[in-house]
Amino acid sequence: MTAVTEPDTVHFGLVELDLLAAHAGVPLPFPLRVPSFGRLAGEREILLATAGEALALRGLADDRGPVGAAEEVVTALREHHGAIDLVLAGESGTTVVAALVYRSSVLLFHQTLDDSQRVGVRRFTDAALAAELLKLVPQLAAPVSMPITIPAPAVKAVTELPGEIGEQEMRDLFRDHGGEPAVLDNLVGLLVPLTGRGQLGATRRGARAGTELSWLDGPKGRVRVDPAADGWLSVNPLHRAAVRSALEELATIARSPR
Fold this sequence. Notes:
The chain is α+β, with helices and mostly antiparallel strands. Helix content is 36%, strand content 31%.
């Protein structure tokens, strides 16, 4: 997906974030993809020292440690009591977002999984959490459709495929996982070709909290995917208002001081 950079966004290299997480003494949040650099102790020491010099050259570190936006990253990593995670996959790629709630602020990490090797970071008030995250979710209308119930392994097989999936490939997958032909025809009409997917959830005091929301995008619109009984999934139209409501609920959980 194409990322829209806010004017107050500060970008960090992956090694720089690895260094800041090491300085904070806590791991970077899900779903960010920042490896621990350096296979050997000496190699890692050199890489992190180089990252520290790069931060200093940008005015983000001095001889006492991180300053400015870099110091804010360390503070958020150490002090956040809640977080919302968002994953968006579309025709132009995948974007992952982690929003850490600490004090009365949110520090939002925005990473596009491409070759840029950078993560955008910006801060805003915690009251704006749901609204800011909603801006990141592309708008797409919900289809006019009745609820569809399908076996969970079939959906898992579809969503784990890279890129677009064709009709025959989807039919083969659903047949192999117990999907009924009539139901499959309805689903194919909604989701072939599959053009995007997304999921959001929340963490509170290190544990998952609230109700996660997952969706799939197709030519007729956006549908949500919810667990049903006995290992089945329910596929229903997903309206923008429902995404907003889910974000507001998760934001309330993440912002709660207790």
